[in-house]
Amino acid sequence: MNPDISLSSEIPETEPQRQYYYIEKAKQYVTEKAREIARPLTFCVTTFGCQMNARDSEKLRGILERIGYEEAAEDEADFVIYNTCTVRENANTRVYGRLGQLKPRKSRNPHMMIGLCGCMMQEPEVVEKLKKSYRFVDLVFGTHNIYKFAELIVSRFESGGMVIDIWKDTDKIVEDLPNERKYSFKSGVNIMFGCNNFCSYCIVPYVRGRERSRAPEAIIREIEHLVEDGVTEVMLLGQNVNSYGKTLDTPVTFAALLKEIEKIEGLERIRFMTSHPKDLSDELIEVMGSSHKICRHLHLPVQSGSTDILKKMNRHYTKEQYLELVRKIREAVPGISLTTDIIVGFPGETEEDFQETLDVVRRVRYDSAFTFIYSKRTGTPAAVMEEQVPGEVVKDRFDRLLGEVQSIAREVCSVHEGSVQRALVESVSDHDSTLVTGRLGNNLLVHFPGSPDLIGTYADVELTECKGFYYIGKACR
Ligand code: SAH
Ligand code: SF4
Ligand code: F3S
């Protein structure tokens, strides 16, 4: 969509027209500056955190390219944007470290700008710190007003000073803005924003706001356009996709949405994340069992195997309920690959609680698991819980858990050795340019001999050797 914009006309009040107006306006400034310095202005968006942020970064890139910026490596870009994450403390530390390194570059390049956005900016303490100690930052905005990026860039150009615009929450979803996809053949698609679950350790509901679902028609329309543009695999994104549609005026279930997406001709693969166990319905399990497009992979974060800890985490399921859910899924979708997230060292976690987690890992036998050391997030209920577990105890549990998770994943992965599976070729292999890398339905990668023209196509690949967490294979002719 690109409504006719005449800059002499009044500034449109409605979105997205207003943003297209500002895109044109920003373009005039950028063109003028490029002429002044006799070269194009360049940008780099660096993403921290989850797939939500990755998708948001594509929207930022789309806007920047429309404005006339060209993409470049971070160390030479005139406009560096960090799209930040704050789910664990170390995510914040990394951003401050990188910012410190940008400062001397900015004093050398008079055209350089630094933008910060994303989840970390939704924390008032962070913004205070930036105002006080990082005055060289040009633009600070949050997760709710990312669609206003062009308007904020214009404010920065016109004011010449630090522009800060953070909203506490929003009930608005702005559709039809530009975006620049990283891959031509696959794409993330937001189906909902925010989270209402308030797991007691988690900061996401505070920085991403209340749960809002996009209208099914808008999602379908977006996917249809993506397919017309060459996309064959979509990843539906939400913090808790299983509660999709509950807050819409005409409620729709996630399973019903999937059935509609399945009908889109030309679309080959559907993935989604993340699923909260408490909302995973029998209807969804049934749809997964009968679908030809939904990949046989489910990311089902367990967080802990101890029912006591799960209660303190506000997760709304017990160890037994989780295991029963896994049983039902495996029965309906044989061979499905299961992955998970686990937190070690939640306040009050005893050795017995930890043993329960190991027990779940051994019983479910995950294809892979992301393991995290509990990180205290100010403002969450868990941060003020007593009995924070000492660092060395947590580290010891973390190492034991990782060992168990990895040895099981290796065994699970080797089960498929020798089989032939369909892979979507994503890239030339990082390690060997005679190989290409393809993604299997179960989300694992296979490297096999092939040329770059295979990128974006599907190949039947024999998995000749399992390397633990990926395969070496050969294409079947
Ligand atoms: N919405 C998703 C998860 C988003 S955050 C879900 O509910 O599954 C991704 C993962 O980060 C979580 O699953 C959790 O395992 C981890 N995480 C969240 N907060 C954390 C914290 N304070 N400390 C350590 N890990 C955390
Ligand atoms: Fe965080 Fe829980 Fe929401 Fe996931 S479901 S984002 S862990 S509060
Ligand atoms: Fe991080 Fe925000 Fe995602 S806090 S994990 S980037 S939703």
Structure overview:
The chain has 477 residues and is of the alpha/beta class. It has 3 domains: 16-165, Methylthiotransferase, N-terminal domain (Rossmann fold); 186-414, pyruvate-formate lyase- activating enzyme (Alpha-Beta Horseshoe); 419-475, OB fold (Dihydrolipoamide Acetyltransferase, E2P) (Beta Barrel). Helix content is 36%, strand content 20%. It has 13 helices and 19 strands. The protein has helices at residues 17-37, 51-67, 89-108, 124-133, 149-159, 204-208, 216-228, 254-262, 282-290, 307-312, 319-332, 351-364, 391-414; strands at residues 42-47, 70-71, 79-84, 113-118, 139-141, 163-165, 186-190, 192-193, 212-213, 233-237, 269-273, 297-299, 337-344, 368-373, 420-428, 435-440, 445-449, 458-466, 470-475. It has a 6-stranded parallel beta sheet, sandwiched between helices. Strand 13, helix 12 (351-364) and strand 14 (368-373) form a beta-alpha-beta unit. The two termini are 42 Å apart. Bound molecules: S-adenosyl-L-homocysteine, iron/sulfur cluster and FE3-S4 cluster.
Brief digest:
Residues 414-477 form the TRAM domain. By secondary structure, the protein is an alpha/beta fold.
Q: What's the overall average pLDDT, rounded? A: 95
According to CATH, the fold-level topology of the largest domain is pyruvate-formate lyase- activating enzyme
CATH classification class of the largest domain: Alpha Beta
How many beta-strand segments?
A: 19
- Kindly provide the radius of gyration, computed on alpha-carbon positions and rounded to a whole number of angstroms: 23 Å
Please identify the structural class as seen in this structure. alpha/beta
- Main sheet, how many strands, which sense, barrel? 6 strands, parallel
